[in-house]
Amino acid sequence: MTDTVSCLPDEIMHRYDVIVVPLEIVHRGKIFRDGIDITSAQFYEILATSKELPSTSAPPPEVFKEIYDRLTKQGHDILVICPSTKLTHVYESALIAANMMKEIHPGIKLHVMDSGTAAGAQGLVVYAAAAAAFSGDDLSTVLALAQEAMRGVHVIVCLDTLDYLARSGRVPSLIAKANTFLKIKPIIELLPLGKGVVPVSRVRTRLRAIDKVIEILRKRSGGNALKVIVQHTNAEQDANMLAKRIQSELMCNELYIKDFTPVMGVHTGPGLLGVSFCLDKNIRIEK
User: Phi and psi for 172 in degrees, rounded to 5?
Assistant: First the structure.
């Protein structure tokens, strides 16, 4: 199991029967389940036209417990891979539900895991675990493989604007206004293992942002094969351009294009472009 923060590509979700729990988007008193009650197009229309920024919340424990109960009755062991606790309360909600289940079923095999990351990097951790589970590995082996995968997954994105991060209180508004005035687009990285977000570079054009991402991937890969998820918020054309560059200039065994789920877009705004990646076969990437 995972959640919509993972931005898991549909191909992987369906291939391995991964259960994806939706976060909630709240706007003007209405609650929308991420990816179910609202499409990306509808969400970005709200973002562009409403003065009131939507908020997000983790699924309540009852949602997790209902799924746990169903899977337990079907005889399944359960691994839940959540986004970093530094970014959201999904882990806490899933853990509360797990503890409730363990009181009812003391022998249940259920583990809730903090992936230490988010977005497609979390999705790549889920991918490693799901592939192992699908091949017949037991819960302890799958968990160990997921924990190893956590060490080598990265997210690098170029933000078109800092306005939405400022509106949600994640960066000072003065910095956001300065970046807008100077037409600077920051490139940031979400490090693995909960090490946080760090600045990577600053560019002025989308083409330069793509060049920089390719440069980073080339350096980090060291000529080895990569798994890559190209990600964007309402910037499909640019995502396709970046994907073609990666395929033609780098060794990439698997490449997916996936838009940031609306629950992520609340905080980044439209125009984000970037990649989540790891070396193929879960080989560790060192900074």
Answer: -60, 140
